[in-house]
Amino acid sequence: MKTTISLVLGLVLVLATGSGRLILGRVLYSEGRDKARNVAFGLVGLTFQMVVATGFIWLCITLSTHLFDSAILRVIATAIFFVLGAFFVLPFVMIAVTPLMLLVSLPLEWIFPSQDSVDAKSIAWCKNCRHYKKSKEYESPLGGLWNSRVQPPLDKLPCEIRSETVAVWDGHFSLEPRIRTLFPNDCPFFERRNG
After folding, report:
1. Residues with Cβ < 8 Å from 161, sequence gap 6 or more?
2. Tens digits of per-residue pLDDT, 55-86?
3. How far apart are CA 16 and CA 83, in angstroms?
4. Do 37 and 112 meet the contact criterion of CB atoms below 8 Å apart?
5. CA distance 151 to 174
6. How far, in Å, are 16, 37, 110, 126, 128 from residue 133 at the CA level?
7. How far is residue 69 from each of residues 61, 64, 83, 148, measured CA to CA in Å?
8. Residue 192 forms beta bridges with which residues?
9. How far apart are CA 184 and CA 186, in angstroms?
10. What is the pLDDT of residue 155?
11. Rounded to two decimals, what is the model's pTM?
């Protein structure tokens, strides 16, 4: 029994060291004021990783203990179960545990709100402009015209003063789609919408 506990604790310490460095790196090199948030979310992620890894290791040891009487065969079987399971079982287990991890980390979002986020109403972009006109064809996340290689027809653009802003839209669609934003930046015709 002491050997099993030693093996599990040793593997947990090895895993904790690697994951601990990831959290420390996230905290030390994070930009902005979200260090406490990074620590909290990092600890939740680390805890879930440790629980899954420890449970999986315990399962491998238990399975080999029930299958074999010889100590050498138990060690070999545990190693084989661990290697095979790490490639074929653990990815599915982590996918299955992710919703639970999100539920547990939801209160952390309220306790540690992101301090680097910006209120969308304070940004100078089309949706906050007085001339904005909703266009489902343009803004659709899947196959929207905003991601088109060529400029769409003027009547599909989300702007009521399209004739005055043609140069802005030409400049916007001259950019490659992978670096282009949803709406043009720094439009000279921007007028903040009231309310």
Report:
1. 131, 189
2. 888 999 999 999 999 989 999 999 999 899 88
3. 19
4. yes
5. 8
6. 52, 37, 34, 9, 10
7. 12, 9, 21, 65
8. 129
9. 7
10. 85
11. 0.50
- Name the residue type at position 79: A
C-alpha–C-alpha distance, residues 43 and 21, integer Å: 12
Question: pLDDT tens digit string along 89-112?
Answer: 888 888 888 888 888 888 888 887
pLDDT in tens, 113-164: 776 666 667 777 788 888 888 888 888 877 788 888 888 888 888 888 888 8
Residue with tokens 């916007």: 172
- Round to whole Å and give the CA distance between 174 and 164: 18
Q: Could you tell me which residue, 173 or 25, shows the higher pLDDT?
A: 173
Structure tokens at 86: 């790490």
Which are the contacts of 78, defined by CB distance < 8 A and separation ≥ 6? 7, 60, 61, 64
The tokens for 10 are 């040793």
Q: What is the biggest distance separating any 2 CA atoms in the chain, rounded to whole angstroms?
A: 83
* Contact assessment for residue 168 and residue 184, using Cβ atoms and an 8 Å cutoff: yes
Phi and psi based region of residue 160 (left: phi greater than 0; alpha: psi -120 to 50; beta: remaining): alpha
